[in-house]
Amino acid sequence: QVQLVESGGGLVQAGGSLRLSCAASGRTFSSYAMGWFRQAPGEDREFVAGISWNGGRTYYADSVKGRFTISRANAKNTVYLQMDSLKPEDTAVYYCAAAPAYYSGSSFDTNYDYWGQGTQVTVSS
């Protein structure tokens, strides 16, 4: 019912920045919380950041707190992940996902019903 499309991934040097975008179509974000997850080869998918569409609360994994910022655009069904001070250990495929609003900030990927295709982020050293 909801389609999510990520963009903005790429290759950057350590210390650089990227901004990931996730655009929704087919249904508004209004009834969904949004999250960003990432997965490196051979690793579990891990929660990165989340945002509530009711009240604007944000949530971050400890590993990215202070470096990454999740936000949404005004009057647009788009969520962003601003990634600053990137480290090689941030290298992964990044996915955006939508969950029922009461799962806002959840780190459990099973709570998310819709997923984007993923975008590769590679940080070189």
Protein topology:
Elements: E1 3-7, E2 10-13, E3 18-25, E4 32-39, E5 46-51, E6 58-60, E7 68-72, E8 78-83, E9 92-100, E10 114-115, E11 119-124
Parallel strand pairs: 2-11
Antiparallel strand pairs: 1-3, 3-8, 4-5, 4-9, 5-6, 7-8, 9-10, 9-11
Characterization of the model:
With 125 residues, the protein is mainly beta. The protein contains no helices and 11 strands. Strands 2, 4, 5, 6, 9, 10 and 11 form a 7-stranded mixed β-sheet that branches. A hairpin with a 6-residue loop joins strand 5 and strand 6 (58-60). The chain is globular, with a radius of gyration of 13 Å. The mean pLDDT is 92.
What are the main properties of this structure?
125 residues, seven-stranded mixed β-sheet, four-stranded antiparallel β-sheet, 11 strands, globular
Order of helices and strands: EEEEEEEEEEE
Low-confidence stretches: none
Portion in helices: under 10%
Largest sheet: 7 strands, mixed
Radius of gyration: 13 Å
Indicate the proportion of strand residues: over 45%
Gap from first CA to last CA? 40 Å
Q: How many distinct helices?
A: 0
Mean pLDDT: 92
State the total count of DSSP E strands.
11
Gross geometry:
globular
Derived structural class: mainly beta
